Amino acid sequence: MDCLFCKIIAGEIPSAKVWEDEYCYAFKDIAPQAPVHVLIVPKEHISGVDCITVKNSTVVAHIFSVIPWIAAELGIRDGGYRVVSNVGENGCQSVRHLHFHILGGEKLSDRMA
Ligand code: AMP
Question: For residue 101, which of 56, 70, 79, 84 is within the disulfide window of CB 3.0 to 4.6 Å?
Fold first, then answer.
């Protein structure tokens, strides 16, 4: 499968890793939209939020249990942060591998995106 994030997870494309465990991988966004901007992805290829099912959703719960630890490591836990996942064309999802943006390090816009 020709998937950018699968290649990043496999180490075929370099990335700035901030977290890795058996189920997920987190790395710095190449075009940060905030002082801290990290992406967290499941190692298993799931194309997006629209492809989460009862069968594959365990990894999503895992990712959300890991996010506060990553936020702590990045020094943004106490100040607060935003977790976003864009879905499909209208959501402006540019990479069809499920990912959650973790944004923080400053007061973010009170608009949703
Ligand atoms: P989205 O537009 O929601 O699908 O988010 C995709 C994100 O992937 C964007 O914020 C891009 O800046 C980011 N991105 C694309 N290529 C890379 C890469 N090679 N390394 C890190 N982040 C990337």
Answer: 84
